[in-house]
Amino acid sequence: MYARDASYVSSEYHFFFVAWVLNFRPYLDKRVTGMAKKILVVEDDFDTRYILSLILKTEGYEVITAADGECALAVAREEKPDLIITDISMPRLNGIELTRKIRLKKEMAQMPILAITAYGAATMKNAIAAGASACARKPLVFKDFLPMIKSLLA
Question: Per residue in 80-98, pLDDT tens?
Fold first, then answer.
């Protein structure tokens, strides 16, 4: 009886492991071959930052994170991401100021920046005026958000 239970658990575990590998296969394949696009997620709210990272990783992207604009500036200089996704409202250095500073840096001036905000159209216009490539409103609708990311990375 115990052997049967153990084999059941083992086969069940094996099934979930295989399902997990197949689910993350595009991510693993791109990471192994070095083809994964690198995205910097800048968000002060831990839960939002974590969920965004998780979703982007399952889509096959390499994700690095920063909790505020000051850290993001340093990380962007060092890591040179293919795309920056930044919240607008953050402590220390907000997303609009971060965007302005990135646009002033010669080596990062052409980097696409996607600004995300829970505020209205005026804030989105300010982000575009500061140099953001595109804006998205929170709460994010991923069926619209993911194609936006793909087009910015194309």
Answer: 999 999 999 998 899 999 9
Query: For 28-62, how does the pLDDT look when each residue is reduced to its tens digit (9 = 90+)?
Result: 555 554 578 999 999 999 999 999 999 999 999 99
Q: Both tokens of residue 55?
A: 């979703």
Alpha-carbon distance of 137 to 124, in angstroms, equals 8
101 Cβ contact partners less than 8 Å away, ≥ 6 residues apart? 69, 73, 93
CB 103 within 8 A of CB 73: no
Pick from 34, 120, 141, 127: which is nearest to 88 by CA? 127
Composition of the chain by helix, strand, coil, percent to 5? 55, 15, 25
pTM of the entire predicted model: 0.78
